[in-house]
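Before the break, one more example. Copy the sequence into your notebook; we will annotate it together after we see the structure.
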Amino acid sequence: MNKRHIIIEIIIIAVLIPALLLLSLKLGDRQYYIGTVAVMILTMLPFFLHFEYRMPTARELVTISVMAALCAAGRIAFVMVPYFSAMTGMIMICGIALGPESGFIIGSVAAFVSNFI
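Here is what the structure looks like once it is written out:
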């Protein structure tokens, strides 16, 4: 891995996220929504950068995107069933089959997309 990418990931994790948290505390009452979404995006960014650096194939990208869509649809379909999460099991299986980076990307994208519903 390139040293420049590692430095960017360390800066995001060690500097930008704490600075954003401090800034969101100073903004006031209802600004924590913006701060929460920004922290969530900054938390996912190092994993996405690391994933993009290894240059995945088109077949792997299609598999990841379809599994993320199925996980989001599974969360939405079973929202009325208490204590049942189809998304968790699917993400665990994807993480075991495709690797931890792909499992994290599937889980984070599925959670991010399904929260819009």
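The two ends are 37 Å apart (CA to CA). Residues 78 and 85 are 7 Å apart (CA to CA). Try to locate both features in your own notes.
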